[in-house]
Structure formats: C-alpha cells, structure tokens
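Appendix B. Extra example for self-study. Work through it before the problem class; the solution is given directly after the inputs so you can check yourself.
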Amino acid sequence: MLESTRNLFAKQIAVFFTAIFCFAAPAVAQDVLPSWNDGDARSSIVDFVTAVTTEGGPNYVAPADRVATFDNDGTLWSEQPYYFQLAFALDRIKALAPDHPEWQDTEPFKSVLAGDLKGVAASGKKGLAQIIAASHTGMTTDEFAQIVSDWISSATHPQTGKPYTEMIYQPMLELLDYLRANDFEVYIVSGGGIEFMRPWTEEVYGIPPENVVGSSVRTKLQMRNGTPVIVRLPELNFVDDKEGKPIGINQHIGKRPIAAFGNSDGDFEMLDWTTSGDGPRFGLIVHHDDAEREYAYDRDSHIGQLKKGLDLGPQRGWTIVSMKDDWKQIYPDQ
Amino acid sequence: MLESTRNLFAKQIAVFFTAIFCFAAPAVAQDVLPSWNDGDARSSIVDFVTAVTTEGGPNYVAPADRVATFDNDGTLWSEQPYYFQLAFALDRIKALAPDHPEWQDTEPFKSVLAGDLKGVAASGKKGLAQIIAASHTGMTTDEFAQIVSDWISSATHPQTGKPYTEMIYQPMLELLDYLRANDFEVYIVSGGGIEFMRPWTEEVYGIPPENVVGSSVRTKLQMRNGTPVIVRLPELNFVDDKEGKPIGINQHIGKRPIAAFGNSDGDFEMLDWTTSGDGPRFGLIVHHDDAEREYAYDRDSHIGQLKKGLDLGPQRGWTIVSMKDDWKQIYPDQ
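Solution. Structure tokens for the complete assembly:
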C-alpha cells in the first residue's frame, strides 16, 4: 500500500469506529431494563454489571468468567397453578389415552383423564412418577423434542388462556439481553426437564440448547433399522434442584457463576454457592407478591416455596425483587 | 445527519468492509492445515468445511448447528504407553504415600510405589478403582483443579521426557483452529475425567471448560466453615466412552454433532451417531501407524484398540488418517 492510501485507510477506520461507537455505545442506565422501576433492585443489577465490566476497576471480571445462571419456573416464566411441565404431562396422557383403554380405570391416569387434579395429587409421588414415565419416556430424544415443540406451540394456560411462552417475564427478558450485551454467558439451571426446555428456550429466551441445564431421565443408545438413536428410559438420572443445582452447574459448565437468579428455596443452594465465591458476586430472588398481575405466594406455597431465601437472602446481600413494586410490566405485550 | 455526511459515511463503511474482507478473506486451501500432506484425508476435511459453510449451497449448515466433537486420548494427544491420566494417578499416589504408610504393604499401592506396572495391572479393575479413588476423590472440585494444574505444568512423559501438553498433535491443533475459524463450536468428548481435562484444555487446545464432556465421579455439596463446596466422591457417576459418548453429547450439548473425530473403537458410537444424522456429516479416525515419530498400534492394542473403525469406517464414508502419510509433523515445534 502507498503511504497516502494507508493514511486514508487509517482515517476511514477511525471514522467508522467512531460512528459505530456512537450507534452502539454501551447502553446507559436509562436505556436498559425499561420494564424495571427505578429502585434498589434495578440499581443493584446495573451497579453489579457496571462494576464487573469496568476495565481496570477493582471488580472487573474477564468475559470468560461472566457466567450467569437462571432458574426457569417462577423466575423466567410463571409456575402457577402448577408447573407448566406438569400441564404438558397431563395433556400428553390425554393424547395417548386412546391407545391405553386400561387407563380409564387405573389411577393416576383415571384422575388425569377426568381432569381431577386432587385425585392426581392423591396418587402421590408414585402416581407422579407413573405420569412422567408414561408421558416423557419410551420414545427417542428426537421424537420427544418434536412432541414438546408441538405442544408448546399449541397449548394454553388453564387460567389466562395465553400460550405458555407468553407467560414469560418481560423484565427478565430485558435482564437476559442486558447481561448478554455485557458479554455474560447466560444459562438456564432448572429443576424442570432438560429435554423439555431445550426445544423452545432459544426461540423464547435466546438461550441455546447447550446452555440449558436441568433434570433428566436416563437414556440409552439403541439401533433402530440399522441407525443409532437415543431412547428415553423410565428411570431418573439427575434431579437439578436444591443441592443438585450447584452440582449440575459444575458438571455442565465447569465454572462457578458470578451471578445467579431464582425465585424459590429450590434455588437457595445455587445462589449460596454462587455468591460465596471470591470477587464480585450477585444473587437475586424474584418474589411473587403480585396477586393482581400474576400470583402472590411464598412461605406456604406448595409450588415455588420461598422461606429460606426471604429469611437469609438479605443478610447475604441478595437482591429481593418485588414483582409488584419493581416491575412495570409482567408479561410481554402481545 | 446531512445528506452529504450520510453519503460520506456510507462510502466509508463500504471502503472499510472491502478492506476488512481483503484482510480476512476465508482461508483458502493452501493456507489451512499446513501440517497436513496433500491427499484424500486433508481434501475430505476441506471439502466438508467448504460445503457446510457455502451459503446457498445444497449442504449449507447454519453456524448454530456446526457442532464438532473430538475424542482426547489418542486423538488430540498421545495415549501410550498408558493413558496420561493414569500417569497422573500414579504420580499422585506417590505424592500422597508419606501420609499412608500402610500403602507400602498393600496392593495395588505397593506396586505403584515400587514402579511395578505389571503388579498394578495384576490388581485388575478393583485395584484401578482403588487407585482412582485414592488419587481423584475426597477433595473439593477446586482443590482437585489445583492439583491437576500443578501436575500438568510439571510432569513429564516416561519415554519422551516431554511435558504431556507438548505431546499434542500439531495437525489436530490446526484442524481445531480451522473449524473454529469457520464458526464451528468445538467440544472434547473423552473417556477421560471431565475435571481432569478442564483445568488445562483452554490453554492447550483453546477449548473452554464448558465445552469439555467426559467421565465423572459423583459429587456432593458440603458446608465447610459456613461456605458451600463441592466434594468429589469415590463413586462413579458417568462413563463417557463407547455408547456413553452419544449419551454424554446429548446430555451436555443437546445437539447431534455434524462432525466427530476419534481414534479408537471407544469413539465408534460417537462417529456412528454423528454421521447417521441427516444432511452433510463427517467422521474421521486418526490411525496410529507411525512407530517412528509416535506409536503404531490398532487391532490388538490394549490401549486405544481400533478394529471396528478400520473394518466399518470406510464403508460409512469416514476418513481414516494415516499419521505416517497424512501428517508432516506430529507434535508442535518446541
């Protein structure tokens, strides 16, 4: 290159980067998290992200270590009146019933088919295991992904009538975006089934299959027509809840997160392990206190019980989000 | 912006992108894989990568689905005269021996301490399990990572005297780079221990902890001085070998790879599952046939046995790499 051409080129690059910088400048406080009201919860998030991304600052964290983990049920989407994965299981039993005439007279299937949730509950853990086995296992992993995709794109919530994927929290979507824009790697770490979530988390949350950690059943490799397939077995492999969350994170990610987000005591150990590491750490609990716009439940709830987190979270420096006060909006606009 | 400014800006962007494109044009055939001799093996790799990255072409694969999985022992680094992780275990037993005077008279430890590998082998699976338990478990995951890091940065190979991390294959490093440059997400999927590999794979191969899948022991969350830690237990959790490889991939990644790379029959199921998917697929086996520069072994080897792959791989369209003929160089220059 001639000297003059090189100079021209350097100048063009400089202009270009200046322009890019103006368009894509780091989001300032007013631009991010628009569905969050001003207040301690929002500030704590912005302060933490600012601290770990400020190069040369005392709390700077390299991008490779900016790992954030999110619970799903009750943290990214609703979980009442029962976990959405249970709704999937019940719908699946109904869809399979024509092939199982014996279910009409056998619990827990009889209650499922009669829409009798109390009857289902009365069948206890054994009944639930039978429902999960019948609805979630026996097929290949590819077949199961298709079944889940078909269901999630058509099923609706028993109370709101909304598709389940519209019962996700707009403020949390903004939080996921904000973290990713700041070079965080964002994971779901849920007690829900890993293969129940993977078919749709990318489209709904922008979280790809490899960033989803969850509970699982055992699988085995089997030859079908000379081709290997992976078949789902009616045996539990891993429960990604409570102490299972740090263990699942360690197994899948191999790094301790610097930020963790949950809503129930099933997330306590994940937040505790995350925030007890060295350096800047962040823990956040979504408190369901908005009976009008969503649901209000905590200490005595059978689903998403939150007691330890309310009692011990604040003294650990965790942010407790009031859905009622901290969120302008719950679900995305349709 | 004024119209003229906008035009100038547009022109500058155009110039800039043209310049960038000239500097960062896709690597052409002569530039990539420099340690690979011209031949069918090298061509098959370049043809596959070109096909799946050619937008609008019949075999184009979106970047999100460009998943490639690599075995480690014998595929990315050497595995003779015994797996390097066994060398770690033996060294660890020696380091711990002063605290265990009883080992002087107890097999398999007695043989380990005497450097008697035949004696170790004679202790069978039970002896090996005892060695693994004593060397790999009882500590926290953080402590284990430190122990591994210390070992890998100081230990040397019993025959070459090289650090183990210099017994990696230069042509495979280039292959990893080539795939990443073409937007592949590259994973290790090894029968070796997941936590034995994670402390060093990023520095050595550029593969971060979250992209490492391997065998594991069970772990549990424990409180130590009021702080949660993860402790390694002397119980097997998962064997990531043979049919365990597709299962481990499905569990960790949640996608079927489009390319898989191995060297032994422990990789057969991974390659078979990978290449039996729809669309363009690639399977490659590194054949150890270079007694002069590395090792020569296959059908009858106790380590890295390769029989099924040689018999069935070619008819499945897999590339068989001759280390002797296809590689200009085995290890990186020091």
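Self-check: The radius of gyration of chain A is 23 Å. If your reasoning did not lead you there, revisit section 3.
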